[in-house]
Amino acid sequence: MNLIIRSGECVLLCGPSGCGKTTVTRLANGLIPHFFHGNLSGQVNVNGMDTRETEIAALSDAVGTVFQNPRTQFFNTDTDSEIVFGLENRGIPREALRFRLDELTEELHLSELRGRNIFELSGGEKQKIAFSSVYASAPDVLVFDEPSSNLDMKAIGELADLIQQAKISGKTILIAEHRIWYLMDIVDRVVYMQDGRIASDMEASAFKALPEADIRRMGLRVRDLSVSESGGVKTIAADGLLSAQKISVRLGGRNVLNDISFQASRGEIIAIAGVNGAGKSTLARMLCGLQKNGSGTVLWTGKPMSRRLRRKKAYMVMQDVGHQLFTDSVAAECALGIKAPNKDEIDRTLEKVDLLAYKERHPLSLSGGQMQRLAVVVSDICGKELLVFDEPTSGLDLKSMEEVGILTRSLATQGKVLLIITHDIEFMMRICTRILFIRDGEIVKDLSGGQKEKIVRLLRGEE
Amino acid sequence: MRLDPRTKLLILAVTSVSVFMNKSIAVECVLAGIPLVLLSVSGNLKRMLKYAAFFLALLLIQLFIVPRLPVTFGGIVYMFAVYIRKLLPCFMLGSFLIATTSVSKFLAAITKLRLSKGLTIALAVTLRYFPTMREEWASIRDAMALRGISASAAGLISHPIQTMEHVYVPLLVSASRISDEITQAAITRGIEHTGERSCIEEIAFSFADLLVVIAYAAVVAGMVYAGMKGVF
């Protein structure tokens, strides 16, 4: 591929998963060939430096990178040291460090984040610190590799503001991203990749003018959240199979959940939405019987379930699915913990989700989507009836998101109760039948049908 | 009290060697006592109490319970109680090092030791990995609970190999991914710069470092003396 990015340009790299956009970011910041080895032919120049001939230390002065996972990009426990980390690497004297720290605090509005413990920050705040730390060293080029994957809407808004500010100050910006809606008013140019090639390269205005159908065909996520069509509107007989009553959890002297009550029926796909820290995960852990120090009752067909019983009835498909696959083959994974595994039933269940051919493979060698489906198969074999998904679509392209949609719908048809913790508006609108919006540990809105559209404003904090 | 990271590394090294050379229980109590003091003055009181209780329990098992057990079984219990207890001071100092040292300070201090860049980065990434490992471990334990696999001590004793496999496989995979990601973030932020590193916080040996070093010199001297005289 050939690509020239002019100084001061802001370029969005998009395309389906595996199209090579992350590889392009790694070529730009020098991780290829300095960290990832392989066969590289051709030439990459950044700021006039040939990346192959230049030390990565010198490249890092010119290119700063913000990565996807906020949890694995910081080195210090306190925010102040973290912001100046890159400057310390360059041996900038202490007085100058302090001066630059104050300067940045002003420029990027960081006063609330100064002197804090990073482990206690939300994902969005961590990402803001990661950006500040990269920005502190004043690189000419900024590279972002799916920076919004783990963020809620409000945090994405703040990230967008930071990128905008970097653009105004004249940085050259390269962003690889699946979620493109928040970048539409920022980028100058959109490069669409497919199978390791640039399939189209256009001005942002031309990209914005493309009809919606083209965007779908390209496998891209929506450019504007308000056009997410509302699906999943289906009348479901309310049977109140699952009922949560007065659930409260206190952790570290704070009410994380406050008197939450709701009911759920077979066949529902319920999104649990809210900003990071609103209590979504704690609610999920409570329903699955994983959370200690909680009060309230969880009933199943009208009977209260103990914590132990909930752990038997419920299953959580984690964001990091790798954490819940324990054995060395797909077949063994399905039989794990079952006294007398029924081989035929396992085969049938694997067949249903196209995994039968991978029976002998190591679970962790499967693709993300396959691992997710394997976790679901496992839950089916264990006879779980309440399934909680934690961010099943974060960092997924359109096709993979739709596959998760198909999977959840088929589970709902089988009569399971599904709860889905998610920030993904497109997924909520198209797949979920109902949205519980949580704020400060309380359910403040229970939206279904046409009301679901309100979620965009709620998540932006405008209502 | 703020210790220099180099002092922390030094006492960790001294302790790691001493616990195996030492034969005296009195000296062992001092070796365990100093990290307990360090943990409590650095504000990790809860952790300190846990370690202290564990150490004491293992000591009491050796002194009062083992003599009353049948010889073979007693031998097994003795081995566990004594060897785990001997390692405790190292664990305590390790957790003290991780809890109280920021990576940037650690890096600035050890670059002054003029170790190779590769080793320095590896040490820093390791130090940074531990808190994340705790988060990963919590989520693996949740996943195990939902599959009805026990990660408790009872599970470990009844099916040791199986339980370890279920913990280690996901933990190792996540460890290699996370350390990879941390390393990428580090090198794109210029950790490979060869000049001397600066640090926003002051790094210098203080009176506290001197005190701790003297204390450990005394422990080593005490250990040699106890070894010669055969003190309890």
Automatic annotation (TrEMBL), chain B:
The chain crosses the membrane at residues 48-66, 87-108, 207-228. The keyword Cytoplasm does not apply. Keywords: Cell membrane, Membrane, Transmembrane, Transmembrane helix. It is a multi-pass membrane protein. It is found in: Membrane. Signal peptide: none annotated. CDD domains: EcfT. The keyword Lyase does not apply. One of its GO terms (cellular component) is plasma membrane. This is Energy-coupling factor transporter transmembrane protein EcfT.
